[in-house]
Amino acid sequence: MNHADKNRNELRSLLDELCNGTLSPSNHAELQHLLKSDAAAREEYLDYIELHIDLKRITSPVGDIPADSTKLLERILERPIPNEVQLAPDIASPRWRLQTILPWVMLATVAAGLLLMVRPYWVDKPGRIESADNTSPFESNAKTPENGIEKQVSRVRLTQIASAKFFGEAIPPLQGIVPFGHEYALSEGMVALQFPAGANAIIEAPAIFVVSDDARLLMKTGVCSVHAPDGAQGFRVDTPMANVVDLGTRFVLSVAQTGETKVQVVEGEAEVFTNSLVPNPNVVASAAIRLYEHQARVIESNDRVTTKEIPFKASDYKPSLPDRIIRFEAVEDDRGAVDELVAVSVQRNAVEYQYSVDQMIGIDLIHFHGVSNAFLVTSSKVEDPSQPDVQGPSRARFLDRDRSLCSGLINPGGQAVALTSDPVLDDPNLPERIGTPGIGLRFKTPVMNGPGPDIVLFELQTIVNSERGDAFHVSPLHFDTGLHSHTIRRYDINLTSPQSKMLAPYRLYRAREVPLSFLQSLQTAHFGGPIHGIAAKVLAVGIDLSDLGFPIGAKVEGLFLQDAADDNDSFDPVFIAGLPPTP
Amino acid sequence: MGLVLESPNSKRFENAKYEEFIQLFSRTRHRIFAYIFALVPHQADAEDVFQRSSLILWNKFSDFDRERPFLPWACSIAHYEVRNFLRSARRDRLYFDEELVEQIAVARTSKAVESENRLDALRLCMERLKTTERELIEQAYGSEFTIKEFAEASGVSPQTLYNRIGLARSKLSDCLKMRLASKGWAT
Predict the structure, then answer these.
(1) A500, A506, A549, B137: most buried, per Cβ within 10 A?
(2) What is the pTM of this model?
(3) What's the gap in Å between the CA of A42 and the closest CA on chain B?
């Protein structure tokens, strides 16, 4: 770090403290000294303050001007100010802070609404696309005039994602347009791109790619499986060493960081142009290497670009993204925050199914052993009795009887090493017995192990906790031969997924009697105390019973779940259900 | 006692003046507030000065030269109000000294341009943040809860949240400068 960088970092650190309201007297003096002695620092200060003010404007629905100024002007002018210039109250300002503390999630819903407000950049584009013409993508098609300059407009869409993460930027919305020329660095997971003529490209991380135009993809590194059906012939993938032109086929490209490119044709045929054959990347030369079904070549460069045949490996081609929870629908409030689950879309054996909650297989909670910070969470519409509730309905209902994503029994116990033998379950007849930390559940009817996910689990996750979701172990209730525990460390819909949704307002209760060793004590434990609520999203993951060693067709009566105890955060299930068998 | 308005020559004249003031004021009020906040970087104090300045702007609006832009005139009045405020300000708060306030005022005046471009660019930069960073910024700026309350409820230390917010803010600052520079707009 050079001197200028160091000074800049020091200045920004002080400016952050100023914006945060945490500037100490000594740092205030230091900031004043810096600003007085350096004009560039004053410029930086002004820019930072401007940013600070503008952030309030765009994140608060009411801006940064106090309400009293409206009243003040009204009083001066003795008449109301027209609506279009009303100065609304500033809820972000401590002076105009609402005296009634709203649940955090009210704010989450505001944030969700604001997310919708900042979406038009992506959302607006499809509207522009529809007016684009349909000329050949290799020509200057789909132009739109902007300030007199003809500009190409992409019609390529991001259609699917699976545990994807882009380096340095947010995941674009599903079905959003992928702009031309933007370099994406896919650091985790997989994505699928749909090109307008029908070509479909599945890209696996780690990968760096650029959509060049409506029929051309540049793969700088990574693996890309292409299916170009009839009508999409001519679709082209460029790499640092080759251009591959599809002639109606399925093929897979693997591009190493050195640029070395492997091309394998699964079916149909493709033409491969090496860089030495293609001096102009925009013009496809007449000479080419033609590859047919189950042929494979590597294009590499030492002193010059060479190609050689390699063994074909069918498994490199990915016809689809992994089986997973694709999305879910839930009842949304007017700000888009969700509560009751309606349906889940699941990919099983590469086929998408949608299940309504009524079609799913419910559970009965048969065991709960919490940890010291065990909580009950309920929708704000439901109030857990603050007094011990022996006669009333069991609190287990918040996990096993309702379809709300805002309610559950969170922070169950766990252990770092997954179970290798049967868990010890609660037994009302043996109240002294210490049960295994975790949650035991029994399906209302056995769940049949089919292809892909067989069980869906939703988790509540606050926005400042792990993006991937909280890891947990899944174990059989009885360790028959061939069965074992399975640890889930990554959710299909995680905190950064565009399919994750903000939760509607909820209530959070801390158990006073800890640990919650038995289901019965869960019911009688006093959950009084302050109600908290913080902005949270709901994540989802599918559990494949095959991962526990169950054979296809096996009927599973129940499962045992434990936090993986890999960090300070325990996992927080709010909805668990089995899926019916596939047709 | 209520505030006394300048005597209008006629109701029609008064209405026209009112409409003109409201239009100019509503277009520039955020920039006026930003100007004041730069000189008095304390939310409650800046709001106080903003309110006083709003009142004076209306009372002096008859003096405003229509041939000149409104914002620099408004900022000059706000600057005067800042000076008045600092003279009588509480001594238990941290303020910049007079010399620095004047230096900032000079630098600020040269930058006091209206720029919706800034907001558009900032919105684009927000989109480029990681989802969690963007949501944290929205929580920090768009909610009524303090970072300490947020930290307490989420089980994360306040300093961790401050660090994350600072990192995201720094990214936004860099992104904003780059975007505005690429468009040839001043920051």
Answers:
(1) A506
(2) 0.61
(3) 7
The average pLDDT across A222-236 equals 88
Contacts of A8 (CB under 8 A, 6+ apart): A44
pLDDT value at residue A576: 94
Interface confidence (ipTM) of the complex: 0.88
Query: In whole angstroms, how far apart are CA A582 and each of A452, A455, A514, B124?
Result: 10, 12, 42, 43
State whether residue A92 sits within 8 Å of chain B by CB: yes
Predicted confidence at residue A120, as pLDDT, reads 28
d(C-alpha A87, C-alpha B26), whole Å: 8
| Local structure of residue A532 (DSSP, 8 states) | B
Q: How far apart are CA A121 and CA A512, in angstroms?
A: 48
Instruction: Report residue A160 as tokens.
Output: 């699917």
Specify which residues A184 forms β-bridges with: A209
Residues from chain A contacting residue B129 (CB–CB below 8 Å): 169-170
d(CA A136, CA B150): 54
- The residue-averaged pLDDT of A481-491 equals 94
Three-state secondary structure call for residue A101: coil
Name the band, by pLDDT with cuts 50, 70 and 90, for residue A215: confident
Burial of A530 (0-12, 13-18, 19+ CB in 10 A): exposed
Per CB-CB distance under 8 Å, the chain B contacts of A115 are 134-135, 138
Cβ-Cβ contacts under 8 Å, B157 against chain A: none
* Window A:533-562, CB contacts with B under 8 Å: 533-535
DSSP per-residue codes, A180-221: TT-EEEEEEEEEEEE-TTS-EEEEEEEEEEEEEETTEEEEEE
Question: Chain B window 62-91: which residues touch A at a Cβ cutoff of 8 Å?
Answer: none
**DSSP class of residue B166?**
H
- Comparison of pLDDT for A574 and A528, the residue scoring more: A574
- In 3D space, the residue among A416, A407, A405 whose CA is nearest the CA of residue A493 turns out to be A405
- CB of A527 closer than 8 Å to CB of A516: no
Burial A31-44 (b: 16+ CB within 10 A, else e): bbebbbeeeebbeb
Sign of CA dihedral A459, A464, A467, A471: negative
* A265 bridge partner residues: A251
CB atoms within 10 A of CB A496: 23
Residue B87: name the closest of B102, B76, B75, B97 by CA.
B97
